[in-house]
Structures are given as C-alpha cells and as structure tokens.
Amino acid sequence: MQALLTTLVCGLVVLTTLWIKTRLKNIPPGPPRLPILGNLHQFPSGSVISTFDKWHKKYGPIVGLSLGSQTLILLGNMEVAKELFGKRGRIYSSRPRMVMGNENLTQNKHTALLPYGPKWKIHNRIHNSILAAGKTQHYTELIEGESIRVLHHLMHTSEYNRCYTRFTSSIIFSLVYGKQLQGDEPEFHEMLQIAENFVAAIAGGTWLVDIFPFINRLPSFLNPWKRMGNRFHDRAMRLFESNATHAMGTKAWNFTKHVHAAEDTSGLTDREVLYMIGVLFEAGNDSTSTVLRFCTMAAILFPDAVKLAQAELDAVVGPSRLPSVDDLPQMPYVSAFINEVLRWRPITPGGVVHASSEDDIFMGYKIPRGSVLMFNHWSAHLDEKTYDDPLSFRPERWLENDNLPLHAFGYGRRVCPGQYVARKTLDVMIPRLLWAFDFEAGYENGVRAKIDPYNLQELGALLRPVPFPAIFKPRDEARRALIDKSFANRDANLDGILNRIETAISRGSEVK
Ligand code: HEM
C-alpha cells in the first residue's frame, strides 16, 4: 500500500514538473528557475520595484518568471506594453483570478478586478459616460473652487496630507454623490477606511485561498476567507447604498442620478450598479492625492525647477490673479513640471496586473494563455533608453522632446477611465501651488527633516512617499491676501455648480 502511494506521489510530481516545463518552454528570458518552485524563492519580500528593475536591466524589456504553476511576464518599456496591451488588447485585457479580492471581498463587483467580458464592458461604458475627456472639460469650475480651499488651508495648517486627501475626495464625492466634503464627515472616514482596508487586503501577500482555490468551497464555519469577505462586502455595500440614497435626494445633478436616469444598466443588479459607482471614490481619491504628495516632495528637493516654473507663472499670470487651466498652453515649463512629477514617481509602479486569454507568440517568445502580465511603470518611466538621465527630476526633457511617452494611467482597453479627471485636477492644483508658495522641508523634533526621494512605501499596486514634514510659505503678501479674498468670495453653492455642469453636458457645449 505504502509503495503504491509513493509511486502515485512520485508520478504526480513528475507529471507536474513535465507540465510546468512544457508550459515554460520558450517563455521570455528571466532569472534561472528551480523545478516546480520556479522563481518563487527569488520573489522579493521587500522592494518589488527595485528587484524587477534589476531583472529588466539584465534580461531586457520583457522578463518571464514562473511562480509554481503561474507564469508572470514583466513589461519594462512603453513599446512592449503598447504592442501587447494596445495592439493585441483583445487577448491581454483580462485580470487574473483573484479569489480573495474579486470573489470574496468585492463579490465580483469591483471594476478593477473584473475579468474582461460583458460585465466589465458595462462598467467601462458607464464610467466613460461621465469621465471621458469631453465631459471632464465641464468640471473645471468645481475643481478650481476646491483648489482655493487647499491654498487657504495650506496657509494655516502643516497637515498637507489630510488637505490633499480631502481635496481629491471632495471632487469625486461632489460629482458622484452631490456632496462636498469638509473632512470630518463620518461617511468620508468610512469610505477612506474601506478603500484603505481594500488596498491592504489585496496587498497583504498571497492568501491561502488564492493558492488553493478549491478551499473557498468549504462551508462557512470552516472558511474564514469567505466570512471575512462577507463582512467586508456588506460594510462597503451599506455605505454605497446610503451614499446613493443621499445622492438621489439632492436637488442638483450628480453621477448617481445620471446613471439611474440615463444609462442602460441592464446586465447588472441594483447592488452591482451601486458598487460600480462607489468604486470611483476608491480608485480616485488616494491616487491623485498621492501625485500631489510626490509633487510636494519634488518641489522641496528641486528648488531650481520651482523657480523656473514660478518665473513662467509670474510672466503669464502675475501676482494679482490665480492661474487657471486656460493659462497652461502659454506655460510649457509648468506643463512639463506636471508631466515630470507623473514620470519621476509613478504612483502605480506595477500598474494593475493583466491576464492573457489566449496562447500568443511575441518577439519569438511564447506567452501561455492565463499568464499574468505586469506593465512595470517604474522601470518604463526610469528607462535610460527612453529618457536621458532618468533618475533626475528634469521638466526640461519634455520641452526638448515633445514625443516622450508618459503612461502613468496604463495602456489599452483597461487604461484608467479617471485619467482626464485626474489630469485636470493636477492641471488646476499644481500651477496654483507653484504660483502661491515656496516649499521647504519641515521640522522633526526641532531639527530640519532630510527628505529622501527613495523613502517610499510599496503597498500592493500603490507607491507612496513615507510621510514627511513640509512647509508651504506664501511667496508674498499680495498672494496671501488674494488667496484669503478668493476663499471668502468663492461660490460655495455646490448645487449651482452641478446644475451648470448638467446644462453644459446636455448642450454638449465646449465651455470649460
Ligand atoms: C493620478 C491619478 C491616477 C492614476 C495615476 C491612475 C492610474 C491607474 C492605472 C495605472 C490603472 C490600471 C490600468 C491598467 O489596468 O492597465 C487604473 C485603473 C483604474 N482607475 Fe485610475 N488612476 C488615477 C486616478 C483615477 C481617478 C480620479 C479615477 C476615478 C474617478 C480612477 C478610476 C480608475 C478605475 C475605475 C480603474 C479600473 C479600470 C479597469 O480595470 O478597467 N483613477 N488607474
């Protein structure tokens, strides 16, 4: 009996090894693999981005790895990402199976985790109905109004992190639920916590249930992953429902009303619709505010670039009015500064992973069906073949070459649908910050802090700077007075702003 068992186990091991070997034959080059384990033992436990970057430097722009039975393909420059996610998007636009993330925590309702298929297409169509470039042009008034609050707060508080989070959250919350956020509302904190818990749960390493998906079929009392998923999902659902109820009861236009009145949601349940709307807050608040944190870091570390941007702002705008997005075409250096922030520290260094749905051959290599593909934004944005002196923060590079690629928002069919809102938010806020303030490192225990541009936190798909103290010094009294006056006179009537958005959208007019 024991001999039979040993033969069976040995047979299974040999078959698995042969299967993996066949599957991995001719995949793109990568670090040497062990039988069965593949590259699991080399998989970084600390900084993923620096290990992947080393592999790209050694093996080229496309690196093949094996994690047990899973094939992982890293894409390290724009050309390969464009080819696979762009031209061959039909087969490279899905997501890998995520038992914990997709099936348990979000119960097949989170846009970013859905496989490519009919349900994702409905989410994407509806998201684009409100976030496309043509719609986003009408949100300038809302974003500019919120930006004045940021300038005013930064003159009175050193808590710029909270200030940026409130700013980006309030823009999305106003559009989606028709309510501006002051920063102390319970629903705001609950939304932030759900988003944070979601990122932490997805980032917290591989779940046992993802390695052995069959255990997810165990009954509830033996299945802590499902129980945790149910609790998490119900909590998010309750909040999305109560936010939507508030949104439907407001006087003015908002995204929730638009979806219910004007979009074809057949194919989704009512709860899926609420979730699809709620996802926008999760995806949109931390991302854009993190770019502002990196912008602040760059502004402290590179005062010469700030001076050049300020000289341009002074020439085009002067001290007696705030810059607006209409000024940007006359301010190439300031526009380049914004691009450079997005390039220098990509906030999603590995993008969001894709999965392939067919076997494919690329550059002579095999990419087996079901491979996981990661567009490595960090390596792509710091690639010395694409960018001269890539580690330096040099806005000038965008003026020297207007064909430089920038793909902070991903590529292909899964490209970020919020990219235009995000970019508009940065196009409003960054010039205003540069116009209003000089930037300095703050103090820690009475000593001037040393800001390290490599002091970064990798949390799942997100890259953030480790919080650092910063001082925002108004550049002169005239600017200080103008910010105070603009804050006092700002139009705080959100309903009016939202109604103007609705009118502009329904006319399809080109007003900003
Ligand atoms: C600077 C800010 C932002 C950056 C850098 C960013 C970046 C990204 C990236 C890299 C992806 C994955 C693309 C891929 O799979 O290839 C993504 C997905 C997504 N983003 Fe953004 N994003 C930002 C802001 C926003 C905003 C403001 C919203 C909503 C209002 C948003 C909504 C989404 C959604 C819903 C997805 C999932 C798309 C899908 O799976 O089909 N993002 N974003």
Automatic annotation (TrEMBL):
InterPro entries: Cyt_P450, Cyt_P450_CS, Cyt_P450_E_grp-I, Cyt_P450_sf, Cytochrome_P450_fung. GO terms for molecular function: heme binding; iron ion binding; monooxygenase activity; oxidoreductase activity, acting on paired donors, with incorporation or reduction of molecular oxygen. Belongs to the cytochrome P450 family. Heme binds at C416. It comes from Talaromyces atroroseus. Its cofactor is heme. It holds the Pfam family p450. Keywords: Heme, Iron, Metal-binding, Monooxygenase, Oxidoreductase. This is Cytochrome P450.
